[in-house]
Write a structure and sequence with these properties.
Layout: E1 2-4, E2 7-10, H1 23-38, H2 40-46, E3 53-57, H3 64-74, E4 78-83, H4 84-88, H5 94-108, E5 112-117, H6 119-122, H7 138-152, E6 159-165, E7 183-186, H8 192-202, H9 214-219, H10 226-243, H11 252-261
Parallel strand pairs: 3-6, 3-7, 4-5, 5-6
Antiparallel strand pairs: 1-2, 2-4
Helix pairs in contact: 1-2, 1-3, 5-7, 8-10, 10-11
Adenosine-5'-triphosphate binds next to α3, α8 and α10.
GO molecular function: ATP binding; ATP hydrolysis activity
GO biological process, one term: cell division
Family: Belongs to the AAA ATPase family.
């Protein structure tokens, strides 16, 4: 990725196949994000206005960022990513300038996807812990800049805005109006089938022993996120190496030992 004063631009290498589970969600994102960029002519022919923004919400470590990158890769769009928390922490005025600059760069590099992580930090509910009638708070100023930029995106510029949050209730209703984030998608924690696929993905390059049964491991990793499962695979490999630095493969007992030493990130209330 190339860093230009706080904005990260990259050509994403992540594909839809690198994301386990979430079959329906991937289909929805393909149609909402990839199609308008790849088949702009078809949308124009039928007079369909594509969504301009998609809000992804769900617990941390369950692939919101990866989904945005995969959409960019599939659409062969430039990928710009910004962190809400980082914008929020800047000096007064700097965050807004960075936002405007990002939209400007995205226009020049179109087709583009702009991804906001921790979007609730940029777009807190207005008035919440906010100004008392005086100057707008940093959050309010960032929010109004974002709204102005999104409203200014002309149709068929090939720019799509994706945002991610763990706290959708903290997002200002103004962001959900038509022409802004008009598609809101929940990214749930992986179910057992999803976990099996995630384990398959993250062991693709590992040499596994014949006794390793990934679906059985998936069955006993109930509250694990995708990121946790990725960590589990790495840890199993490390256990094997610690046992014997010239190990030839990673076996079931290495996975079991890794499981004993790792705790899942999710709580029961997050998987309901
Ligand atoms: P956060 O809210 O913390 O930013 P996130 O929801 O954006 O989290 P990602 O950053 O996309 O999550 O995921 C973290 C890592 O976990 C990724 O690098 C990816 O390798 C792995 N991961 C998560 N979900 C999946 C999945 N469904 N399939 C494959 N890998 C996954």
């Amino acid at each position: 990725p190339s860093m230009t004063r706080g904005v990260t631009k990259e050509v994403s290498e992540v594909s839809w196949d690198d994301i386990g589970g979430l079959t329906d969600l991937k289909k929805k994102l393909k149609q909402a994000v990839e199609w308008p960029i790849k088949h702009a002519d078809a949308f124009a022919r039928l007079g369909i206005t594509p969504v301009r923004g998609v809000l992804l919400h769900g617990p941390p470590g369950c692939s919101k960022t990866t989904l945005a990158k995969a959409a960019a890769h599939a659409a062969q769009a430039s990928f710009f990513s910004l962190s809400g928390a980082e914008l929020y922490s800047k000096y007064v005025g700097e965050g807004e300038a960075l936002l405007r600059r990002t939209f400007q760069k995205a226009r020049l590099a179109a087709p583009s996807i702009i991804f906001f992580d921790e979007a609730d930090a940029i777009a807190p509910k207005r008035g919440q812990g906010g100004s008392s009638g005086g100057n707008p708070t940093i959050g309010e100023r960032l929010l109004s800049t974002l709204l102005t930029e999104m409203d200014g995106l002309e149709q068929a510029t090939g720019i799509m805005v994706l945002a991610a949050t763990n706290r959708p209730q903290a997002i200002d209703a103004a962001l959900m109006r038509p022409g802004r984030f008009d598609l809101v998608l929940h990214v749930p924690p992986p179910d057992q089938v999803g976990r099996t696929e995630i384990l398959q993905i993250h062991t693709r390059k590992m040499r596994l022993g014949k006794d390793v049964d990934l679906s059985r491991i998936a069955a006993c990793t109930d509250l694990f996120t995708g990121a946790d499962l990725e960590g589990l695979c790495r840890e199993a490999g490390m256990v094997a190496l610690r046992e014997d630095i010239s190990a030839e493969s990673v076996s079931d007992h290495h996975f079991q030992a890794a499981l004993d030493s790792l705790k899942p990130s999710l709580t029961e209330s997050q998987v309901q």
